[in-house]
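Morning, I've got a small favour to ask if you have a moment. I'm working through a protein record and want to make sense of it properly. The fold is given in discrete form, as structure tokens running alongside the sequence. Can you walk me through what the tokens say about the fold? Thanks so much in advance, here it is:
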Amino acid sequence: MTTASEDYVKAGAEKVTPKEIEKVVEHADEIRQQFQTRGPLRRFVEDGKTLMALLKDYRKGNYRTALYGTIAAAAFALIYVFNPFDIIPDVLPFVGAIDDASVIAACLMLIERDLVKYRSWKVTQPIDVDPQE
């Protein structure tokens, strides 16, 4: 049984295009900053880094084991965090970050198995020169 947040992420992921994945990667630093400075999102800092690394490795062609639905869900969740005008606008202190955190949590629940596989794969790879991954 899925939650309403998981259903929301699934529906959003179905609309994600390769161009939007590219947009997430291009705005990686700004998205990463959202996790580090916004209350409820702070607990997801490491998960946010993992989602971003997954998208970068997918885009580079280094990791293609994950289903496109997993990639799209990760991209959708990160776009949601980046978008200041989502369901609850981010200009509302604290409350604006709660919906972002719930979307990230739902995404993580949906793609948990693929993230475990990705993390296992990632530790076997040579160290990347990008210190923020």
About this structure: Helices lie at 4-13, 18-26, 28-37, 45-60, 68-82, 95-110, 112-122. The chain has a mean pLDDT of 86. Residues 45-60 form the longest helix (16 residues). The CA atoms of residues 29 and 57 lie 16 Å apart.
